[in-house]
Every structure is written in structure tokens, then in C-alpha cells.
Amino acid sequence: MRWDFFMQYWLIKSEPYKYAWEQLKKDGWTYWDGVRNYQARNFLKQMLTGDLCLYYHSNEGKEVVGIAEVIKPAYQDPTIEDDRWVAVDVKPYKSLKRNVGLKEIKATPELEQMVLVNNSRLSVQPVKPQEFDVILKLSET
């Protein structure tokens, strides 16, 4: 039985040279800004305090490296005056015991419908609870 029935799960991407997981851990929190895709923006708007996000290093690494927690829901992106764009605040929640790479994700049958597998360019995307659990199990092996 899941105690977190109302929690939502997400995947957020960052290129490690721009903002790596280790930097988030060092900073303690950050605002997730700079999203300029309408679909990704709409997902940011759906995030609630307490939601968990798989932290994915894109381009370099192509792997899930940690879990971040949403600590402030969507608000005006502070890096731009255009009110169409939003940011959320996140903090590190947990490092994975082992990074889970895109090749491994694509090779896992339970993850074949995951947005990351079918729309790998989207920088913010929903993750089903079952997919989140499979990623965590993969990270433990």
C-alpha cells in the first residue's frame, strides 16, 4: 500500500555542466527556471510541494542521478519578465546508490511507456508511480 497516494512524480533534466546534481546538493536548493517549452511549462505548473523529481543528467551522462523534492510550487520565473514562464523550487532529497542510464531505462520492459523513452527531449515530464519505483529498484542493484 502506497502511503504517498496523492504525491506526483516527475523527471527534471539538467545538463551537468550547467547545473549538476552535486551542485544542487552543495547549494541545498534552487529554483528550476529557464523552461521555455509550453508542455514542460504546463508540467511545472502542476507540481506541488512535496512532489518528488527524478534528477536526470541530459546530453552528458544521460542518467538519473538523484531525487529532488519540490519545496515551492510554480511562480513567475525570476529570470524573465514574460509572465508565461514559471519556475519551481527544489531541494535534494536523496542520491541514488547507483545512477540509472538511459540505455538501461530503454531496456527495461516496465519502462517502455515512460515519457523519457518516448519523448526524450522534454525537459520536465511526468513519471508514473510504478515507473518511479522501477527506477529506484534499478538504482539499488
General description of the model:
- With 141 residues, the protein is an alpha+beta fold.
- 29% of the residues lie in helices and 35% in strands.
- The chain contains 6 helices and 6 strands; from the N terminus they run βααβαβββααβα.
- The chain has a 6-stranded mixed beta sheet.
- The radius of gyration is 14 Å and the shape is globular.
- The protein starts with 8 loop residues before the first strand and ends with a helix.
Summarize the structure.
The protein has helices spanning 16-19, 21-27, 38-46, 102-106, 115-118, 129-140; strands at residues 9-14, 30-32, 52-57, 63-76, 86-101, 124-127.
Radius of gyration: 14 Å
- What order do the SSEs take from the amino end to the carboxyl end, as H and E? EHHEHEEEHHEH
Q: Could you list the spans in which at least 5 consecutive residues all have pLDDT below 50?
A: none
Strand content: 25-35%
Largest beta-sheet details:
6 strands, mixed
| Overall outline | globular
Helix content: 25-40%
Q: What's the total number of strands?
A: 6
If strands are numbered along the chain, what order do they take across the biggest sheet?
2-5-4-3-1-6
Q: What is the typical, i.e. mean, pLDDT?
A: 95
Figure out the total of helices. 6
- The termini sit apart by 23 Å
Q: Structural class of the secondary elements?
A: alpha+beta
